[in-house]
From TrEMBL, chains A, B:
UniProt-recorded name of the protein: Thiamine-monophosphate kinase
Sites where the protein binds Mg(2+) 1: 56-57, 134
Alphabetized Gene3D superfamilies for the sequence: PurM-like C-terminal domain, PurM-like, N-terminal domain
Keyword Magnesium: yes
Signal peptide (from-to): none
Originating organism: Branchiibius hedensis
């Protein structure tokens, strides 16, 4: 099949699936836990620990990415990364994903192939395989990708929930903050060249897989991934745990300094930027794993404060933000 | 919150989720296998047999349903039913689902609540629970629901695949065929009153959960659910198993007779109608469980025949059929 000019319209599902499977295969992921892979009514997956972590996340063209800003392999990588980050945030390891693609029949087949390449590559990075999916047509301009990730915990372990933070714990983060939000600003201002690394992180975050498991093993008392902004996500831990969390901006100085390309908006990107997918967790003081940074403290009370001052949080909301 | 006038726009995700969770709860499903339910980064689900069946299916407004033909609870039920039917088709029992909803902010909140009621009710029928989901906004007129179902086999069992049919087996079906397709014709012709049961089956099929497990226990050699039409789906067994399947129309006379409302198109509905979600399986002669009907035979060769005459199959294709 000549891919360069082809679109989905006019191709059978078998033809399209063969293109997708070829793309996925480039990721090179293999797993002995896949007992039945794609092609039957369902996949069949060994679950060694006897319990599965399950999460799902959708991506929408025009909401979660723009085709003039993100190549299809970025979109595929991001789709896997944001699901796998949720598995990490429980202390788990991603084992498998299923993906549905709902797309305008005018979508280029080459775009779909590169999407599959991105899905397959990021799955391989996470140590997981794509074990199935579904394909459906939609109206003009529509492209929705929905993925479900499955994962496992170490034998005998329980997941790190949001509700376990205790007064006296420290708040720690597994990586830099604000990059995805700053990258988005640069794209919006047509200044991608001013911060290609930030833009790259917006196009597809690359979580450090294994951070979640290390946090679990270090005794993290609460954890999630920063998907909707530090303050909003910290607020989720505070609310679930019935504690107050104080974020210390002095500890965020390196994050802010790295966002010079967006000027004085760096602080806002660090405090409120979503799609970061680093992990945010609480630990007994000194228990945070190597590579994690303490950026705040847990106390009696409610809500989130910045340097002792109460905040309303703020972060990504799908339906309260005016988007058109 | 006054639901009657409200739409998604302007509501926080927490508000919308509380509406959805209230709807789901009406289904009344409970499970002791849900170790961590909705509300954290992932769910955590006990997998007693040590292996999970996994499948995913998307539904698209304007493709898979029309709002003037289907109430939101029909849509929710159908979404669960078509995923759970895939689990049944392996011989399994559905244990849990996750669901993503991608919707125009102008979608009424009451519609979303009733969708959740349908999801919860059909999940309960299947013996499963909804353990998580994701919510995202989309452009005008867009509504996409994507579900992933997890299931399990009886301890020590292996799934019934499509590839095990052997020459000499019989082809059998677990229920009536053609109802969903006939119902669709009646809706398209604005004659719903001429066949309310057929229309009801199109709006939301109600698989007989447990049929798949009984087929597995009876030694089914190959199985799938009729999602894209009898001939096309029989062709999938034939291809995967390297056999020829002959469908006997005499055995389909009761199915056709029940579709009198669509006149002489009944045969086509029975042979080619999709969305039926009854099970199609092959067995050694006489091994088919009570309630299953023999409708054909497996022989050496390739392809699907009807009363000994070769056929090209034909069934639902998303991208080769002209839809606008």
């Amino acid at each position: 099949m000549a891919l360069d000019e082809a679109v989905l319209r006019g191709h059978s599902e078998a033809q399209i699936l063969s293109v997708i499977n070829a793309g996925l295969a480039l990721g090179g992921a293999r797993s002995t836990d896949v007992l039945v892979g794609p092609g039957d009514d369902t996949a069949w997956l060994r679950v060694r620990s006897g319990a599965a972590l399950v999460t799902t996340d959708a991506m929408v063209l025009g909401r979660d990415w723009r085709d003039d800003w993100s190549a299809p392999d970025h979109v595929g990588r991001k789709c896997v990364a944001q699901n796998a980050a949720d598995i990490e945030a429980m202390g788990g390891t991603t084992t498998a994903l299923v993906v549905t693609l709902v797309a305008d029949p005018a979508t280029p087949l080459a775009w779909v192939r590169e999407l599959a390449v991105g899905l397959g590559r990021e799955a391989a990075r996470a140590g997981a395989v794509i074990v199935g999916g579904d394909l459906s047509s939609a109206g003009p301009g529509v492209c929705v990708i929905s993925a479900t990730a499955l994962g496992e915990l170490p034998d005998g372990a329980r997941p790190v929930l949001r509700c376990g933070a205790r007064p006296g714990d420290v708040l720690a983060v597994s990586g830099p903050l604000g990059r995805a939000a700053a990258g988005l600003l640069l794209l919006q201002e047509d200044r991608a060249a001013d911060g290609p690394e930030l833009v790259g992180y917006q196009q597809s975050p690359h979580p450090a897989y294994g951070d979640g498991r290390r946090a679990l093993e270090a005794g993290a008392s609460a954890m999630l991934d920063v998907s909707d902004g530090l303050l909003l996500d910290a607020g989720r831990i505070a609310q679930a745990s019935g504690v107050r969390i104080d974020v210390h901006t002095a500890a965020l100085a390196p994050d802010i300094a790295a966002l010079g390309a967006v000027g004085d908006r760096g602080t806002d990107c660090v405090l409120r930027g979503g799609e970061e997918h680093v992990l945010l967790a609480t630990f007994a003081p000194g228990d945070e794993p190597t590579g994690w940074r303490v950026i705040g403290a847990v106390a009696d009370g409610t809500g989130v404060a910045v340097d002792g001052r109460d905040t309303q949080g703020g972060g990504w909301e799908h339906f309260t933000v005016q988007q058109e």
